[in-house]
Input
Amino acid sequence: MEDVLCDFCAAPWTPERAMVEGHRGSCICHACLAVAYAELSPQPSRQPVGQGPCTMCLEDRGEPHWQSPARDAARICRRCARMAAVVLERDPDSDWSRPTA
Ligand SMILES: [Zn+2]
Ligand SMILES: [Zn+2]
Output
């Protein structure tokens, strides 16, 4: 796990920093997911639609994305943010819970 980095903030995967894997080894850490999740809900219609494919699912669905402020090319779509939130909440090693608005 040493070389796994968050695609959104470049932080390494550690036992204290839970991550969720997307396609092709892309990862988002719990901290980035919390920000992304909060910004993509509950009023996603306010969010600008990102340009280009989602880093996690590699699809460009024309849906709202959260764009990483740290890494230009990193973005996550609402669907992936929700899926990652579910995965992380179920992870027994993680005490993460989705932020409440
Ligand atoms: Zn991160
Ligand atoms: Zn996606």
Notes: The first helix runs from residue 30 to 40.
